[in-house]
Structure formats: structure tokens, C-alpha cells
Write a sequence for this structure.
């Protein structure tokens, strides 16, 4: 028990980790983690560049330690934790990049075509818009759906899409334009329903 550690500061990281592995007492793991929480937060902020995301990451990394720490023979906890934190952040960035790229590609065109100064869509999170987008793509006519998927998600040009679908390039352009218009209408309708 951590209460048996009268002066916690006098115990090394290794002692504390060993005690946690033996007892499973989260207070002990929390105590040793707290010694480096500023380091974890600093690394997260450096990579994620967002305070709230970094605070969430600090908590998630602690949750990760609970299940993973017993799998490693840790010689220097501070160095090991730095590497774990850095790797966690890099994985988060990688995971989010693909989604963001898809969202940005679509929203670029969406906002270029929008002439309103303020629109309900301006007031929603990227995550919500990404979900709405997926939902609305599924409602498109098959040809529009295929062309949108190939153009925005698979980064194919008109010529490649025409060849892939065995249709004329002008039809590809038309399907994409009509698909974008229908997506815009679908998303706007969904937003209105949510705001009612």
C-alpha cells in the first residue's frame, strides 16, 4: 500500500513501479506518474499544439500505463515515459491526418461555393461535419458517390476516374459537381434539423 510509504519522495521510480506491479495499487502508479506529469504535458503540447488535446493525452497515457507498464523492464522511467509520450502523440497525429485531409479537401470546395457570410455549418466541429459528410455520401446516386469517393478520397483525376468507371470525362465532371451540390444540400438540411 502507498500508505506504507511514509516519505514517498524518498523512494525511487523503480521502487514505486515495482510496488505498483506487485500490488496493482493505482495510487502508487499515480504518485510516480505525477513526478513527470509536467514533462508528459509539455511533450504533448509540443506535438499536438492544443491545450485541451494535450490534457486529454496526459490522462490517456496514464490509462495506457495501467495496462502496459508491467510488460516492460524499465531502467529509466523518465526516459521511457518520454518515448512512450512522443510515440503516443505521433500515432494520434498520424491517425487524425487522414481524416483531416479528407475533410479539408471537401470543405475547401464547400466553402468556395458558399456565398453566405455566416452559415450553420460554420458553427459545427470538424468531427461532426466529417460524420455528416460520410452519411450524406451514402445517400448520393451511385455514379455521384463513386466519382466523389474516387476524386476526394482516392485522389484520382477526371481521366483516371473516367477510365476506371468506363464513362466520359465530362460525365465525371458533372457527377462530381452534382454530387458536391447534393452533399451541400444534405449537410445543410441535417444542420437545420439539429438546430430546430
Amino acid at each position: 500500500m502507498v500508505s506504507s510509504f511514509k516519505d514517498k519522495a524518498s523512494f525511487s521510480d523503480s521502487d514505486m513501479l515495482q510496488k505498483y506491479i506487485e500490488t496493482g495499487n493505482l495510487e502508487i502508479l499515480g504518485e510516480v506518474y505525477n513526478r513527470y506529469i509536467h514533462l508528459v504535458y509539455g511533450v504533448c503540447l509540443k506535438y499536438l499544439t492544443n491545450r485541451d488535446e494535450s490534457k486529454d493525452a496526459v490522462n490517456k497515457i496514464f490509462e495506457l500505463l495501467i495496462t502496459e507498464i508491467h510488460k516492460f523492464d524499465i531502467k529509466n522511467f523518465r526516459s521511457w515515459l518520454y518515448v512512450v509520450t512522443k510515440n503516443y502523440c505521433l500515432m494520434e497525429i498520424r491517425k487524425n491526418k487522414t481524416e483531416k485531409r479528407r475533410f479539408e479537401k471537401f470543405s475547401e470546395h464547400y466553402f468556395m461555393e458558399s456565398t453566405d457570410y455566416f452559415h450553420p455549418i460554420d458553427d459545427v466541429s470538424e468531427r461532426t461535419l466529417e460524420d455528416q459528410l460520410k452519411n450524406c455520401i451514402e445517400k448520393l446516386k451511385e455514379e455521384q458517390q463513386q466519382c466523389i469517393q474516387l476524386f476526394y478520397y482516392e485522389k484520382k483525376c477526371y481521366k483516371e476516374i473516367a477510365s476506371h468507371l468506363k464513362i466520359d470525362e465530362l460525365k465525371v465532371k458533372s457527377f462530381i459537381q452534382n454530387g458536391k451540390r447534393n452533399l451541400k444540400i444534405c449537410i445543410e438540411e441535417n444542420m437545420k434539423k439539429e438546430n430546430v
The two ends are 54 Å apart (CA to CA).
